[in-house]
UniProtKB/TrEMBL annotation:
The chain crosses the membrane at residues 78-96, 155-173. It is found in: Cell membrane. This is ABC transporter ATP-binding protein. Residues 34-322 form the ABC transmembrane type-1 domain. InterPro entries: AAA+_ATPase, ABC1_TM_dom, ABC_transporter-like_ATP-bd, ABC_transporter-like_CS, Type_1_exporter. GO terms for cellular component: plasma membrane. Keywords: ATP-binding, Cell membrane, Membrane, Nucleotide-binding, Transmembrane, Transmembrane helix, Transport. Its main location: membrane. It comes from Clostridium thailandense. The keyword Cell membrane applies. It is a multi-pass membrane protein. GO terms for molecular function: ABC-type oligopeptide transporter activity; ATP binding; ATP hydrolysis activity.
Amino acid sequence: MKHGRRLVEKPKDMNKTVKQLMHYMKSSSLLITLVLFASVLGTFMQIQTPKLLGKATTEIFKGVTEKGVVVDFDKLKLILLFAAILYIGVNILTFLQQWIMTCVSQKTTNALRKELKKKINTLPVAYFDKNSNGNLMSIAVNDIDNIATMLQQSLTQLISGIITFVGILAIMLTISWQLTLIACAIIPGSLLIVKRFSPIAQKNFKEYMKLQGSLNGIIEETYQGHMVIKSFNGEKDAVKKFEAYNSNMYESGWRARFWGGSMMPNMMLIKNIGYVLIAVFGAIKVTNNSITIGDMQAFLQYSTQFSQPISQLSNIWNGILSTIASAERVFNVLDEIDMEAQKNKIPNNYKKDVKIDFDKVSFGYTKDMLMKDFSLEVKSGQMVAIVGHTGAGKSTLINLLGRFYEIQGGNIRIDGVDIRNMERSELHANIGMVLQDTWLFSGTIYENIQYGNENASKDEIITAAKASYVDEFVYKLPDGYDTILNEEASNISQGQRQLITIARAFVANPKILILDEATSNVDSRTEALIQTAMRKLLLNRTSFVVAHRLSTIYNADSIVVMKDGAIAETGKHEELMSANGVYADIYYSQFMEECAL
């Protein structure tokens, strides 16, 4: 969610972040050189105009003070014409700077967005467990937009401000060094104001940033779970929680902007005091003929322009700091360690015979190990069901097989090859997944099925749709396969969404199939359809079925019962029932629940 200009904390390592940002601006070095040239030339032209106008004033003054009015209008016209040319030149060069920096900013942020998107695809799943979606969205949208704004506006102002300050200081010294000292006297006062007000503003900027990230997360959660919130009458609590964060954001944002905005009026006061002092002492010098009236007029203009870069710097400095902090947040993501690189491809015989071994595997999401010395052998073409109470480690086993998490000990082998030595893309290309929580993107039903294999032909997609019973309900829709699913695919039923994910797995034609409680969210009739479709899908494939309803796995080649990250029992349904162990307890508890219903 965008909030316009984002307020963020002061960067931790400014030099490092600036160097990284300059690396992405390297391809625009020629354009930046043109901006610097235009800025120098434009500043030179701009600081000449007050002196030219001063000469015009002096000419008029000389003409009217002599006997009669003897003004050299030809010379005056020439001076004014030259001044007009300079003003037009300054305007053209300013436009040129803005146009070029717009190109530079968009080119730089375009490269950053591409790198960030590429990086997100290579980050381990554990990274997303530790970082909220709201915060990552804020980095990808708000922070990068903040960088674009700074490069387009603030950076140009900073460059021209520094050049203007130096140029005006030099030309003022040629007019009167005494008056220049008075003009320079305002600098310490301005810096004192910046030093006094900036820390207070920055403190509130930091608080605002933290609250904004939290609020983004709350809003995202609320929208995703709006049906649950309404079902449990949780609207008031959701609004109350939102208002608490929003109120705190208002307080910190108000303070940040108040203290940040208070710098300008205070600096204007000091500037005006300096202006009055220059006018008084300058008038005395004019009456003493120490300085011409035209030079005095020019100096007053220069004194106003002289303080502008300081005012601009104080005004944009917080913006520059916040932008660098935004860049730092982006680079923090880009500097994260990728998923481990792979060394070898899966051997050719992998596609012919898929045997999977878990050999003394150890793993934990934290320092506490969930699995210790876990071993399991799955033969080619075997259907293995995995059951157990919540938290037993069922989904963890599946995540480790797909290398969404890295094991801390032992080995997982496919056909004798450690999966850590396989190319991840090749591994995933041969593993199909149908999950409990269906994921479909905004697009047509045809495109969602084709997502399993982008190279699949239309006939292959239709065949997969028929095998998974998608074809039966698609033709009842007005647009058929061209029906566009909305953001949450809520314009079709949960069961229909699940059938589409099965069709997607058919199109992918994987050698290893993972079904993670794929029927737990549907009614009995739809479950029967899904079960029939899944039986076709499981044929001649090595498969893992994470089951909640035990009725779906009676025919499994092997049932693995997990408890506390370890194997409690293995065997077929009849064998495990006869053993009267953990599996039997789970079975009877489900039977009692069904009877109660």
